[in-house]
């Protein structure tokens, strides 16, 4: 038999640091760390970190054909011999409980299987004998019985055996033609049989649901609940010699092929469908023995394999030369396709991230900035901080709306800004001027970008800049000072930062020295070709932006605007100060489109709660699948009027369903409460419209189309019928004339067709009615009537209309 002096090996199931090898000898080893004890001559090097020390050895068993460690708490091994005998060995020379079972007819023992649930039951499989049974079930707790517990399979051959994980169901591959299932709980053992040649290497998954077997080069996966046919068959290149199911992972089956150095790790995945189960599998190849044999110059082939009973990343491998190694199986990193058809690792699975954030009340904190801290994501933290600064009275106003930028190519231009030329400070030895642009809209936009000093240099130098320095944002503070031509202050900031003992001290010191010798005339006129390479050597993006700004032409700041490592808010604030109206409008539109294309939520600074903002949220969702952030931003910063749009409904309902799926009922309820509290009730119209009794439409002439308005303009004061159905309007209870709508009169004597505004009739001509009896008339008539009468003017109506309302002042006499 191939395999050198060792024919097979196996871990002890319940003594996880022991394993057994069999061949001419049956040996028990204990795995130890290299630093645990002193090695002996019988020790075996397993790995750079572990070795095996020999605990016991048995030499009395000759011609061992199979071996199976028991699931009992103590070490107990069943050994099947070529003679058909089965011996139990506990490797204890003092309390030797050696027992031996002998079949009635001598023939080879082919397989052994211990019951995991009842460790006292041992199933024994023998070769064929026409007058004897091939399967014997032995209850070892009863000693050596005169008659075995059960005898199964008269005249058959048992090629492999295994027990079900839950029930006392024995699965056997017999006679190269069938798999049989025996229910050992019944006195007359019932049998279910499936005709197949996949009868070798039977093993059950840890869940007890699936069964694996093989023949030649084919591996079959079965469902024990419906074992009529295999769920799938997996083809290999060479004949299989060993098939084992991982004891801790239901999805992993390992197979060893004859004369192959590779171990095939077959991962089986099942997807439940309406009419059964859909199986798909993936293969991994492991090469534990990668060094070549010094004599044959060939890589050692695998002979046997045993999973560790508890650690799924660990296994013992036996080579054809008898070498044993303790091998750590590399972790398979699960990958998935992201929405852009790129591979993304499972460690960044968005579902896990959403679950963690939901448990931490992400997006539900009243203080907006706290939600950025809960997100544990630098990008999202920056977005929440930006939105906290942008939100004004429950509204998210974007720079596009503030600056008056139109999306249409032929739309109205921005409001014109004031242009001003400012000279650089005297100490810089420069006569150059910088052109800046001012307007109320630009200043407000800068405030939304975080530059909250509103061009007040005193506030900037005394509050804003010190706050940045307190947060160790020295280079950003120096950059903003430079943008406002405060070169001296920028030098002081960098010099102060250089005194701190940090990694950037040298960089700050060199930048301060460079700014000290700055001259605008020379900087803008020389070294244009060397600027890109020089700027690329500056690691700090803010310092890089400072020198890019100082060396830029007065009308070209593309280097500053395109510095992607600077926040979008700072770049837009700079643009609001130095770009002309046309360039600023073009920049806003291009940046919005770029943010939408890339799903950059910082673009909300520009879009606000507009339609572009909705498109931006959708793009972010397409890029990241972060339905949580999209839903929370939608309910928090977008008006309730747009929540009825299909996309908004889909986002919110999807996130709610996701929380329900995880059974996070409380978090879902908190989300609903937050959404309800943030919704602004619809505005109630201040106008009241009179409806026709016949058609139910408004009788107000101001709401009719132009044709009817023009037809009524010829005689606007004689409209006595509904403009929709032409039915007569109600009559005044006093003058008995048909009521007319509130007719409009033209302004300044112009025709009703061309006028711009409308002027309503006097209140005395309005139509009024009682809410109780529904009788009414012209207001001036009713006021005159109720000044002397308490009851309704309609005959036979005793309604006290006057007493139901507030007292009406007496009508003034002209």
Q: Spell out the CATH superfamily of the largest domain.
A: YVTN repeat-like/Quinoprotein amine dehydrogenase
Uncertain spans: 702-717, 741-760
Give the CATH architecture of the largest domain. Answer: 7 Propeller
Count of helical segments?
22
User: Rough shape?
Assistant: flat
The value of Rg in angstroms is 44 Å
Tell me the number of strands: 36
State the end-to-end distance. Answer: 131 Å
Mean of residue pLDDT values: 80
Widest sheet: strand order? 1-2-3-5-4
Top-tier CATH class of the largest domain: Mainly Beta
Number of self-contained structural domains: 4
Question: Strand count, sense and closure of the main sheet?
Answer: 5 strands, antiparallel
Organism: Hermetia illucens (Black soldier fly)
Pfam families: MIOS_a-sol, MIOS_WD40, zinc_ribbon_16
InterPro entries: MIOS/Sea4, MIOS_a-sol, WD40/YVTN_repeat-like_dom_sf, WD40_repeat_dom_sf, WD40_rpt, Zn_ribbon_mio
Domain GATOR2 complex protein MIO zinc-ribbon like: 692-801
Question: Can you describe what's shown?
Answer:
- The chain is an alpha+beta fold and 814 residues long.
- It folds into 4 domains: 8-250 and 289-328, Methylamine Dehydrogenase, Chain H, CATH 2.130.10; 349-414 and 580-683, no CATH class; 418-578, no CATH class; 701-804, no CATH class.
- Helices cover 28% and strands 24% of the residues.
- The protein is built from 22 helices and 36 strands.
- The strands form 11 sheets. It has a 5-stranded antiparallel sheet, with no helix packed on it.
- Helix 6 packs antiparallel against helix 7, helix 17 runs antiparallel to helix 18 (627-637) and helix 18 crosses helix 19 (646-661).
- The radius of gyration is 44 Å and the shape is flat.
- The protein starts with 7 loop residues before the first strand and ends in a 28-residue tail after the last helix.
